[in-house]
Design a protein that fits this description.
Layout lengths: L2 E6 L6 H14 L3 E4 L16 H11 L4 E4 L10 H14 L4 E5 L4 H4 L9 H20 L5 E2 L4 E2 L14 E4 L3 H10 L2 E4 L4 H9 L6 E8 L4 H12 L6 H4 L5 H7 L5 H5 L3 E2 L3 H14 L3 E6 L4 H16 L2
Helix pairs in contact: 1-2, 1-13, 2-3, 3-5, 6-7, 12-13
Protein name: LLM class F420-dependent oxidoreductase
InterPro entries: F420-G6PD/mer, F420_G6P_DH-rel, Luciferase-like_dom, Luciferase-like_sf
GO molecular function, one term: oxidoreductase activity, acting on paired donors, with incorporation or reduction of molecular oxygen
Length: 318
């Protein structure tokens, strides 16, 4: 059975709007919601970056049924993994076990603010591996001391911890990260419809859910949707090697200056056609992802949620 989620883009909406949007998404029948965890928007036009963990506390109290998750939190620089474990346990208690912790290796844009520089990709994955060990150990109550190459724990204990361990899903853009998710995580998160990621996850022992984010932009006309997607989401076309390395919104503005609306529309399903959006979603379902998180780009969240409720959900759940 495929579950369908709603993406809370904290780079595009303030905290109160995120809460209101999720309440409406719950009413519309979404199964889960994933919030981005950023210190900065990608580009200035997006204009927001509230603390995801404060918003999650509000979301837990403002809803009753819908699942919650981070997609994704980076626990290697800006946060110590012990603090992420504590936050995850707290949100799980506040939401009555509706929370899943999504983790990833992060981007310079958000992590350089801690003033510790930005390591190469090899060290980032080593840091993430240690961080997952710490977080999983604290969430299970089986770890209190740890001394790794990058992180340490000294007599740590989560005093408020749910009886059911918070599941931890790990983001992967390639097979190596997918294998890490399979070895140490409880689920996989991806943004591309690549079956090989799921295969690497399963081969490494992963048996949990596979989440995928699908970017859409509903609007009354295709031209309007393309313009909206370009205004708020052109940074996404730069590719992961660029996204992981640029330190500021000015850098993303420069890197995306020559990207046209038509180019963005090749990656983001644009327009009023439900069938076009269903075609984009189906690529991820066919690849084997069982949790599909829909990202509506831009300010028209209420309109998109209504379209999901009326046109997309009945066909998706068929």
């Amino acid at each position: 059975m495929t579950h369908f989620g709603y993406k809370l883009m904290s780079e595009e909406h303030g905290p109160k709007d995120l809460v209101r949007n999720l309440q409406r998404a719950e009413q519309a029948g979404f199964d889960l919601a994933a919030i981005s965890d950023h210190f900065s928007p990608w580009i200035e036009e997006q204009g927001h970056a509230p603390l995801a963990w404060s918003v999650l506390g509000a979301l837990a109290q403002a809803t009753t049924r819908i699942g919650l998750m981070t997609a994704v939190t980076c626990p290697i620089m800006r946060y110590h993994p012990a603090i992420i474990a504590q936050g995850a346990a707290t949100v799980a208690l506040l939401s009555d076990d509706r929370f899943t912790l999504g983790l990833g290796a992060g981007e310079r844009l958000n992590e350089h603010v801690a003033g510790q520089g930005w390591p190469g990709i090899g060290e980032r994955h080593e840091r993430l591996s240690e961080a997952i060990d710490i977080i999983q150990g604290l969430l299970s109550g089986e770890l209190s001391n740890y001394r790794g190459q990058y992180f340490s724990l000294d007599q740590a204990k989560l005093y408020d911890r749910p009886q059911r361990k918070v599941p931890v899903a790990v983001a992967a853009g390639g097979p190596e990260a997918a294998r890490l998710a399979g070895r140490k995580g409880d689920g996989l998160v991806a943004t591309e419809p690549k079956r090989e990621l799921i295969e690497a996850f399963r081969e490494a022992g992963g048996s949990g859910p596979c989440y995928a984010e699908v970017s859409l932009c509903w609007a009354k006309t295709e031209a309007e949707a393309q313009q909206t997607a370009h205004r708020y989401f052109r940074w996404s076309v730069t590719g992961w090697p660029v996204q992981a390395e640029l330190p500021t919104t000015r850098g993303f503005e420069a890197a995306s200056r020559h990207i046209t609306p038509e180019v963005v529309a090749q990656q983001v399903s644009c327009g009023p056609s439900a069938d076009r959006h269903l075609e984009s979603i189906s690529k991820y379902v066919e690849a084997g992802f069982d949790h599909i998180i829909l990202t509506q780009v831009g300010p028209q969240q209420e309109e998109f949620i209504a379209v999901f409720e009326r046109d997309l959900a009945p066909k998706l759940r068929r």
